[in-house]
Amino acid sequence: MPNAMFMLSGIILMSVEGPSFGTPVFTSEDQNACFIQSSSDERYIDEFVRLPLRQNWRKNFRELRSNRSFVVGTPFLYGFRDADERLTVDEKFVLQLKLHDEFDRYSRFPFLSFAIAGFLENAELIVRISKTKDIRAAIDNGELALPPFLEALDAEQMGVTEVRSAPQTYFSPERVERLKELWEAGLSASQIALDLGGITRNAVIGKVHRLGLRGRTKGPSGDLESIREVILSSNVAPSDEHHKALTELDEATCHWPIDSPDSPEFKFCGAPTLAGLPYCASHARIAYRPASDRPQRPG
Q1: Rounded CA gap, 130 and 133, in Å?
Q2: Which helix (H) or strand (E) holds 38?
Q3: What are residue 23's DSSP bridge partners?
Q4: Nearest Cα to 81, choosing from 49, 51, 116?
Q5: Do residues 45 and 39 touch, judged by C-beta distance below 8 A?
Q6: What is the pLDDT of residue 224?
Q7: Does the model's pTM come out above 0.70?
Q8: What's the confidence (pLDDT) of residue 63?
Q9: CB count, 10 Å around CB of 132?
């Protein structure tokens, strides 16, 4: 059912103890099965995939519930357990804000810090962490690879023996021109990577940054704090004149669901989005308000 509704039930953590990234787990309306989300570009949920009945994934499962419902077409979610054992499941932008603000708390976890820096797509942090003893050794030994969007940095800059990343031939002059053409046409980094072939979304993002085509990858003015300020300063009332079906949505239209998924009138907001975000100004204020301001789940 394309409009089936799912509720968050918890996270499957990558590590049994300590801070860790994790995969959100959902339950169906009848509560008889568990699901994880699937997406071709990790921006919007394409489908919910049923987890196998075997229990091996449950050893790393931690319960976490939310009042929000999720359907196909809503933004993709990420999970994390922080240094205080708090569980967070939210959209990438929200989790990036949290980890950006708390990054120094994880300095004693070099491999986690490296993963967080990659999640933040922050080249400066990755360069800094890659010069630490453990990470440098792991990269030199081939046990750890640098994110592809760093292929422009040489080994001396990184402080490692060899930079293992996407080769420069991936961006021949012809491919660079094709990248520019697709970017100006409004395609996502994932779509461009598929068109060029043999390259990842992160490699496209890195090249876009170096070419100075930054406007669409980091929101209104290129950094997390600026996006946060734009959201908090926006005060536009939602309107029903833009409502769209799932098949009518694109990256420029708001993905906030309207009405219950089982309603024949179920739609998405469809209003113009804030640059780099999946929601319009009004719904961004709802989605990205601080956790302390959100209504608490009873009980």
Answers
A1: 8
A2: strand 34-38
A3: 12
A4: 116
A5: yes
A6: 57
A7: no
A8: 92
A9: 15
Dist. CA 165–CA 147, nearest whole Å: 7
Q: What is the mean pLDDT of the chain?
A: 76
Structural element, H or E, at residue 110: helix 110-120
Select from 250, 269, 251 the least CA-distant residue to 259: 269
Give me 215's structure tokens. Answer: 């406007």
Angle between helix 133-140 and 110-120 (nearest 10): 80
Place of tokens 């993002």: 205
118, 145 Cβ separation under 8 angstroms: no
* Most distant pair of Cα atoms in the chain: their distance: 60
CA distance 158 to 132: 10
User: Which tokens sit at 84?
Assistant: 């205080």
Are 208 and 189 in contact, with CB atoms under 8 Å apart?
A: yes
d(CA 120, CA 204) in angstroms, rounded, equals 15
Tell how far CA 74 is from the center of its chain: 12
State how far the Cα of 9 lies from the Cα of 223, in Å rounded to an integer.
Answer: 31
CA distances, 23 to each of 38, 175, 188, 248 (Å): 11, 34, 23, 28
Domain ranges of the chain: 1-91, 107-165, 168-211, 224-293
Q: Which amino acid is at 282?
A: S
Query: What region does 219 belong to: left with phi over 0, alpha with psi -120 to 50, or beta?
Result: left
How far apart are alpha carbons 138 and 143 in whole angstroms?
5
Burial zone of 171 (CB within 10 Å; 0-12 exposed, 13-18 middle, 19+ buried): buried
pLDDT digits (tens, 9 = 90+) for 226-280: 566 666 666 566 666 778 888 788 878 888 888 766 677 788 888 888 766 788 8
Residues of the chain with pLDDT under 70: 1-3, 30-31, 54-55, 148-170, 186-187, 190, 194, 197-203, 206, 214-240, 260-262, 275-276, 289-299
